[in-house]
Amino acid sequence: MSTKENILNVAQDLIQRRGVNGMSYQDLADAVGIRKASVHHHFASKSDMVAALLQRFNAQFDQAVAQIANGSASGRTRLKRYLDLFVNILEGSKLDKVCVCGVLMAEIASLDEQGIQHVRDFLHSNVQQVCKMIDAGIEDGSLAPNQTVAATADLVLATLEGGLLMARCDGGRKRMKTINDRLLGLLSSG
Amino acid sequence: MSTKENILNVAQDLIQRRGVNGMSYQDLADAVGIRKASVHHHFASKSDMVAALLQRFNAQFDQAVAQIANGSASGRTRLKRYLDLFVNILEGSKLDKVCVCGVLMAEIASLDEQGIQHVRDFLHSNVQQVCKMIDAGIEDGSLAPNQTVAATADLVLATLEGGLLMARCDGGRKRMKTINDRLLGLLSSG
DNA sequence: GTCTATATAGAGATAGAC
DNA sequence: GTCTATCTCTATATAGAC
């Protein structure tokens, strides 16, 4: 793995645990095993680094979500798998991880326009994909029909982002699963 | 208003907009119109200040919530009023505010044990009160019966905290209202 | 691509005068 | 209770040698 990728991996982990403002070039250098100046060689400024990280994260996450959204399972099953994506961000560690974009939404004032746009892209892309899953679920009868699919998708994403923060703070993976089960129950048919 | 209260007011505003790590004693001093050393006179350390702020915030919020939860309106109406409490955190300004505890959940790694406990207290207290509203709604028939009231209350809080972050990032108050309407619709009877 | 060294700025915090 | 002055540490960032 290249040093550049290595830096991004460490940066993502630290951001998910501590936030952008809680992570420094020194932290990155220490974790990767190089010097601060070497980190600057790969990413001239911190906002450059955050932008590169978000671009990569969005691409990776989009791919995982697309695989679920375009699957052949029922809409409900696809949605369940999507919810599990977020549960699996929590590893059960002491200072656990949450969604990258969840953290950055809370620190949005520290981002430049490019960073903010990446976070907005994450939201937009995810809402769109969740809409597709819900549409499929209504079509195949596994999810309850409703005239507000976009609002429902927004609700799903809000619950996931907020649920992760809550679960990390108190209750862990178990609490996150409980919230997701309840959400899926409310959206299911029958 | 005392200088101490003044500092807390400014601190709360800044934390809601920028986060704890995005706010400094210098920012507070500038906004209040005193010097950094004077801020330290009132709150020796930053974590002292955050603890005092959270204690005050929880007490104020608890009171507002209790007034709603103990009201005579239907459970559904009480829940609606509770959701509106969160909508009203957003003022429609450029860099808008979100829930204090929503921000701190994202920055939980920067808090000491006392601060973390205050955030947990916020969650616990709010979940409890939402449970009361849901119970009342089931009793009076305005909300749909379910065997998982605690999980539903968790879902409500997760949606509110995540919804605020999303709405501030993109869509504003309108988006927050849409999410809350959808949530209330899913929980309502009939 | 990595290093040492340094510049510059800001952070949280303290001492002591008024 | 507020001030000036200062301490110490850490932050982002750059210059230039290897």
Primary descriptors:
mainly alpha, 190 residues, homodimer, Tetracycline Repressor, domain 2, DNA-binding
Q: How would you describe this protein?
A:
2 copies of one chain form a homodimer. Helices cover 74% and strands 0% of the residues of chain A. Chain A is mainly α. Chain A has a single domain, classed as Tetracycline Repressor, domain 2 (Orthogonal Bundle), CATH 1.10.357. The termini of chain A are far apart. Chains A and B meet through helix 6, helix 7, helix 8 and helix 9 of A and helix 6, helix 7, helix 8 and helix 9 of B. The first copy, chain A, binds a DNA duplex (18 and 18 nucleotides) through helix 3.
Please, what is the oligomeric state? homodimer
Q: Compute the average pLDDT of chain A.
A: 98
Number of discrete helical segments of chain A: 9
Instruction: Give the terminus-to-terminus CA distance of chain A.
Output: 49 Å
Helix content percent band of chain A? over 70%
User: Which class best fits the helix and strand makeup of chain A?
Assistant: mainly alpha
Question: Mind sketching the topology for me?
Answer:
Two copies of one chain form a homodimer.
Chain A: H1 3-18, H2 25-32, H3 36-42, H4 46-69, H5 75-87, H6 100-106, H7 113-140, H8 149-169, H9 172-187
Chain A binds a DNA duplex (18 and 18 nucleotides) through residues 3, 24-26, 34-38, 40-42, 44-46.
What is the gist of this entry?
The structure is a homodimer of 190-residue chains. Chain A is mainly alpha-helical and 190 residues long. Chain A has one domain: Tetracycline Repressor, domain 2, CATH 1.10.357.10.
